[in-house]
Amino acid sequence: MIRILLVDDQTLVRQGIQTLLDLEADLTVVGTAVNGQQAIELVERLQPDVVLMDIRMPVMDGVAATREICRRWPHIGVIILTTFDDDEYVIEGLKAGARGYMLKDADSSDIVASIRIVARGEALIQPSITRKVLAEFSRLAASAPATRPSPLAEPLTEREMDVLHGIAAGHSNREIADQLCISEGTVKNYVSSLLAKLAVRDRTQAIIRARELGLLP
C-alpha cells in the first residue's frame, strides 16, 4: 500500500484528489495539509511514501516545504502537483528535490501513475514540462562561461546512453523498456549504473549533469 500525504490550501482540490485516489486499491491518503509548514509536521509524524505538494500556499510555499522534506527525509518522494507551469516554478521545484512535477489538469490516470512511479524511487516529469526544463537548461548553458566539468572516469555505454535519452524525454522505466525491447529490471540496472557514473542521486540530476558534460543536446 502506498501511503500519500496531500498538501493543498484549497479544500475542494484536496477532496477531489482524495476521491480520485480512494478509487485505487493500492493507494491510501494518510493525511492532508493546508500549507508547507503543516506538511513538514505531518511528514515527520506520518512518514508517508509520497507527498503531493501544491506550490502557492500561505505560511510556507510548496517549494520551501519540498526542500526541507527532501533534506530531512530523502527516502520520501515529493511530487509537485500544481496549476503553474511557469519556468521559474518548475526549475525551483526540481532543484528543491521533487521527484515529480505534474499539472492538475493532467489525466487522472497519469497522476495515479506518477505516484506509483515515484513510490518506486523513480522520477517522472510531465512531458510538456520536461521540454521546459530542457529549454531552461539550454538557456543557462548558453549564458554560462564556456567551461566543462571533468569528463567521466568511465564513459556511458551505448545502451546507457539510450536509457539516458529516455530519461531526458520524461519516460518511465517501463516505457524505456518497451522502447528498447528489454526488461524493466534491466532498465533499472542501467539507470543505477549511469547514476553512479554521473555521480548523481536521481534522474533529474542525471539530466542536468549529462547536459553539463555535453551528453545531451
UniProtKB/TrEMBL annotation:
It holds the Pfam family GerE. Keywords: DNA-binding, Phosphoprotein, Transcription, Transcription regulation. GO terms for molecular function: DNA-binding transcription factor activity; transcription cis-regulatory region binding. InterPro entries: CheY-like_superfamily, NreC/VraR/RcsB-like_REC, Sig_transdc_resp-reg_C-effctor, Sig_transdc_resp-reg_receiver, Tscrpt_reg_LuxR_C, WalR-like. The keyword Acyltransferase does not apply. The modification 4-aspartylphosphate is found at D54. Residues 3-119 form the Response regulatory domain. One of its GO terms (biological process) is regulation of DNA-templated transcription. SUPFAM superfamilies: C-terminal effector domain of the bipartite response regulators (SSF46894), CheY-like (SSF52172). It comes from the Bacteria. Residues 149-214 form the HTH luxR-type domain. Transmembrane segments: none annotated. PROSITE patterns: HTH_LUXR_1, HTH_LUXR_2, RESPONSE_REGULATORY. PANTHER family: TRANSCRIPTIONAL REGULATORY PROTEIN NARL-RELATED, TWO-COMPONENT RESPONSE REGULATOR. This is Response regulator receiver. It comes from Chloroflexus aurantiacus (strain ATCC 29366 / DSM 635 / J-10-fl).
